[in-house]
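Researcher: I'd like a structural prediction for the single chain below. Treat it as a standalone chain; there are no partners to consider.
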Amino acid sequence: MNLLLIGVLLALIAIAYQIGLSKSRSLAGKGNNSALLHSRPGYYGALVALWCGIPAFLILIVWNLVEPNILKHVILDQVPAATLAGMDQASIEVLMNRVKAIASGFGVTDQPAPYELAAAAQLAKVQTIGSYAKLAVVLCAAIVGLLIAKKRVAQSFRARNKVEKIINITLALCSGVAILTTLGIVMSMFSEALRFFSFVSPIDFFFGTEWNPGFSTSGSAEGSYGLLPLLWGTLMVSGIALLVSVPIGLMIAIYLAEYASPMLRSWAKPAIEILAGIPTIVYGVFALMIIGPFFKMAGEMVGININATSALTAGFVMGIMIIPFVSSLSDDIITQVPRALRDGSLGLGATKSETIRQVVIPAALPGIIGAFLLAASRAIGETMIVVLAAGNSPLLHVNPLEAVSTVTVTIVNQLTGDTDFASPQALVAFALGLTLFVITLGLNIVALYIVRKYREQYE
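Model: Treating it as a single chain, here is the predicted structure.
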C-alpha cells in the first residue's frame, strides 16, 4: 500500500507542476512574456508541486510512525489480562508476530488460541480501515495543497523566494541530519566507554603496556587492558604505509601535473584512482597470499626472519592502497598554483626541476601536508588489511618484521563471538573506537588548520 501511495503521490506532484507551469504561462500572456511575472514559470510549477507533495509526505511519514503502536494496542486489547500479565517483552513480541501471521493469511504451525484468532480478526479489520483512511487522508492533503498553491499563483507572487526558502530549509535539515548522526555515534561510543571505565581505570587503559583481556561470565574485568601495545601497532603500520605512499604519491602527482602530456594524464590519473575503489578486503587477501609470503621468502634469501603476517606486510599493502589519496589530492593542489609563478621562475633562468622544487612545491606545500595528514587518518582507521595481514600479536615491540595488533583489529576481535555486550570484554571496543575517533579527528583538524593558515590566495 505504501509503495502504491508513493507512486500516486509522485504522479500528483508531476501533475501539480504542470498545472502551476501552465497557469503561470497563461498569466504571462501571449508569447510567454516572463517580464510580467515576478518569477520564471518553472518556479511557479515547482511551488505548486511542493505544496502538493510536502504536506502529503509529512502526513504519510507520521502515519507510518504512529501506526505500529496503534496496531500493537489493538492486538493486546484482545488478549486476556491474566495471560498478558504473565508475559515478558520477548513473549509479547512472539505473540505479535503470531497474530500478524494469522491476520495475513499465512497462519502458524500449531493451533492458535481463541484470543489469537480474535486479535487477528480485529487486526485485519483495523488494517483494512487504516489503509483506506491513510490513502484518503494523504491524497486529500495533496489535492488541498495543490488547490491552495494554484490559487496563490499570480503575477506578483514571489514564487522564486518561496521555492528557494524551502530548498534552503531542506538543505539545512540534511546538514542537521549529518551532524546529528555524527553526534549520535560519538555519544553512543562515549556512554559505552564510560560504562567500560567503571570496570577498568582510565589510567590503566591509556597507560597500560599489556593487552591480555580475560573472558569471564561474571561480568568483571579480568586480565589487562593496556592500550599502548595496540596504539603502537597502529602507529607502526600507519607509519610504514605513509613511508610507502607519500613519496610515490607525491612523485606521481608531480609527474602528472608538470611533465605528463594531456593524453597521458587523461588516462593515467583515472587508472591510479581505481586503486581507491578496490575493496579493502581484496587488498587484505592480496597481502596475506602474495605480499606476506614474498617478504618471508625474500628475508630467507638474505638471512632475515620476516613473518608473513607482520607490520611490514600490512603497512606496505596499505601504502599501496592510499597512494591514490596522496597523488590525487597533491595533483589537484599543484595544478592550482598559477602558471605565472612557473613562467616567472623560468624567465629568470631556472630549470624546470628547479622551478618545481623552489617555486611550485613551496607554494603548494600547505595543501600537500594536509593531503598527507588526511592519508594518515585513512591509514589509522583501516581494518580489513590489518585484520588479515598484520597478525594478532598485541605486544609492545619495535620490530616491524613481526606480527602486531592494531586498535581496529582488536575492536573486531572484541565484538565477535558470544561475548555479553554488557561485559567489559565487549565494552572495551567502544573505548577503543572513541580513542581512534579522537585521533583521526585531531589529524583532520590539524590538516584543515594547516591548509587554512598557510594557504596562498591567488587571483
